[in-house]
Amino acid sequence: MAKPWIKYALLIGTAFATFVFFFTKPAMPQELSYHLFVDQRMFWNIPNTLDVLSNLAFLIVGILGLRESCKINSPVKNSWIAFFVSILLVAPGSAFYHWAPNNYTLIWDRLPMSTGFMALYVIMLAEHISFKFTKLLPWALLMGLVSVLVWVATDDLRFYFWVQFSSFLTVPIILLAFTSRYTHKGWFGVTLLFYGLAKWTEVKDKEVFIWTHELMSGHTLKHILAAIGLMGVWWMLKVRSEAASVRTHSV
After folding, report:
1. Which residues 6+ apart lie within 8 Å of 180 measured at CB?
2. Which segments cross the bilayer (predicted)?
3. Gyration radius of the chain over CA positions
4. If we measure between CA atoms, which residue out of 162, 160, 158 comes closest to residue 149?
5. CA 49-40-164 angle, 5° bins
6. Between 62 and which of 22, 87, 129, 158 could a Cys-Cys bridge form, CB atoms 3.0 to 4.6 Å apart?
7. Quick one: CA torsion of 183, 165, 198, 93, rounded to 10 degrees?
8. Cβ neighbour number for residue 213 with a 10 Å cutoff
9. How far are the Cα atoms of 96, 107, 115, 157 from residue 89, in angstroms, in the given order?
10. CATH architecture entry for 48-244
């Protein structure tokens, strides 16, 4: 078994390495070509219909998760509520963006995503290392918001990308190196898998549109896959219990 300091060094080192990776690069402005999604069809007078309506999946999982979060009797309760409120808000934020894709509407897509990432990161730290990390929730949410606002003010995505990718890369380390206080933690891995698939289909927007014979684009599929992954987190929260290794110890 790895010594405790090695686990923490790996965690901190990965976050630092991603920081160096992004901030040794030139400023990264938002490419306007990002807004040119392949499926621009309109049905029922809704522009970019499928990219807009597929966000209903986030609304559903946000509501389900929020209901389950309110039942929790744990110091992590507020972090779970913040996470699923963020997911719920992704639905209108992303729908607003896809209705008329541009840098301004993209702000409202990224704001709830950034707070969702940070709330989940606090949850991972609190449930795998120490409940004391829940005290960082307000600061973590603020950091997520600031990462978006820095991009808005400077048209530089480096800080925003670092916040997202450092958390995405360190979450597997937390899952593998630390023991959770709760059962069914494998669902976090399922969520990461679907998130990775969602990011891949986002990149392959046009190719997925062709492969599906124009049934749906990669970006529409991204929304669906991401929501399915989040449903795994909701289900985990619903069925899990305190792990046997900590049942005899006080919180």
Report:
1. 127, 128, 243
2. 45-66, 78-99, 111-129, 136-153, 159-178, 185-201, 221-237
3. 19
4. 160
5. 80
6. 87
7. 100
8. 7
9. 11, 12, 10, 22
10. Up-down Bundle (1.20)
Tokens for 62, please give them: 């946000």
Q: Domain extents for the chain?
A: 48-244
Neighbours of 114 (CB within 10 A): 23
Contact of 67 with 107, CB cutoff 8 Å? no
Q: Encoding tokens for residue 124?
A: 């991972």
Which two structure tokens, joined as six digits, stand for 96? 């607003």
Cβ(140)–Cβ(121) below 8 Å: yes
The residue among 30, 54, 70 whose CA lies nearest residue 158 is: 30
Residue appearing with tokens 């807004």: 35
DSSP state of 154: H
Angle between helices 103-128 and 158-177 (to 10 degrees): 20
Residue 168, amino acid: F
Each residue's pLDDT expressed in tens, for the chain with a length of 251 residues = 456 778 888 888 888 888 999 899 899 999 988 899 999 998 999 999 999 999 999 999 999 999 999 988 889 999 999 999 999 999 999 999 999 999 999 999 999 999 999 999 999 999 998 899 999 999 999 999 999 999 999 999 999 999 888 887 888 888 888 888 888 888 888 888 998 899 999 999 999 999 999 999 999 999 999 999 999 999 998 888 887 655 544 44
3-state secondary structure of 144: helix
At which residue do the structure tokens 């069809």 appear? 41
